[in-house]
Design a protein that fits this description.
By secondary structure, this protein is mainly α. The chain contains eleven helices and four strands, in the order ααββββααααααααα. A two-stranded parallel sheet has the order 1-4. The longest helix has 23 residues. It starts with a helix and ends with a helix. The model has no long low-confidence stretch (mean pLDDT 96).
């Protein structure tokens, strides 16, 4: 991601951070290629990046050009710290959810494609935890990460991204690895927005998790519980309190969202106040 900003900044007469704050795609860049070292963001096959500025504790999306080509070698992932692999799996999972867990009935093909990636991640995650040096497992992980955010499963469907934008603030303020922030925030997003997302949660519960019995509310509760359980099976904490994060941070994130006047989510209903409720439910 940093290389994408560098490729734009080299041709910009000023501070490259200006390009990030402008919030507009930059197409005048030095051509770049990538060698993937950490499967997670899908940056090797998209035009996006996320850039942090440590001095101001800020983290924002940035968009430029696609890499001309990327080299993906699963053996590179053999030596990654297990925590980073877990965060990469979590990041990939929530990338899919940001494009899937929105409005039902928009595209059968995109839904099934997304559900296939989710099922693959849930199937391979425990096996990767046991053996990180399995070439086929790491190939499936790497390809899942690439396919989760290269634009394919987003075709013709609404997208959310509220979880990501809240997670970026946790990284900026506390330095938590990005994928780790998502497993803390996403179950809270489902809990707070369960009414708007209820039909899609039920579909996910049935098709991906095999939840077919119980009342509507019971099935939604079970789907959310098992999603958080999956994240914990990766060895990641899923509550803010486990990381020593409390109301001071929650209030600061609400303040930042309100100051920017943002409205995230497929229904543009995740304001500062709603983000606060999501984080409070994640304590």
């Amino acid at each position: 991601d940093g290389t994408k900003l560098i490729s734009a900044g080299l041709l910009y007469d000023g501070d490259a951070w200006d390009l990030v704050l402008a919030g507009r795609p930059v197409t005048h860049t030095v051509p770049l290629a990538t060698v993937l070292t950490l499967p997670a963001t899908g940056s090797e096959m998209n035009s996006g990046a996320v850039i942090s500025r440590h001095e101001t504790k800020e983290k924002y999306p940035f968009y430029s050009n696609y890499p001309l080509f990327s080299i993906l070698d699963p053996e590179v992932a053999f030596t990654l710290p297990p925590h980073q692999v877990a965060c990469g799996i979590a990041d990939t999972f929530v990338h899919v959810m940001e494009q899937y867990m929105t409005t039902p009935g928009q595209s059968r093909v995109m839904d099934r494609w997304a559900e296939g990636i989710l099922q693959t991640l849930m199937e391979i995650a425990p096996k990767i935890r046991e053996n990180q040096h399995d070439y086929q497992l790491m190939s499936d992980f790497m390809l899942s990460a690439t396919m989760a955010l290269n634009g394919f499963i987003a075709m013709g469907v609404s997208q959310d991204w509220a979880t990501h934008m809240i997670g970026h603030e946790l990284t900026a303020l506390h330095g938590l690895t990005h994928g780790h922030t998502l497993v803390i925030v996403f179950p809270g997003t489902l809990r707070v927005l369960r009414k708007a997302k209820g039909d899609k949660i039920l579909q996910y519960g049935e098709r991906v998790l095999g939840i077919t019995s119980g009342s509507r509310d019971e099935r939604i509760d079970e789907a959310i519980r098992r999603t958080e359980e999956f994240f914990r099976s990766l060895g990641l904490t899923t509550r803010l309190s486990e990381e020593g994060i409390g109301m001071e941070t929650i209030d600061e994130i609400e303040r930042r969202f309100n100051e920017r006047g943002v409205r995230y989510g497929e229904n543009e209903d995740v304001t500062g106040a709603v983000a606060k409720e999501i984080l409070k439910s994640s304590l």
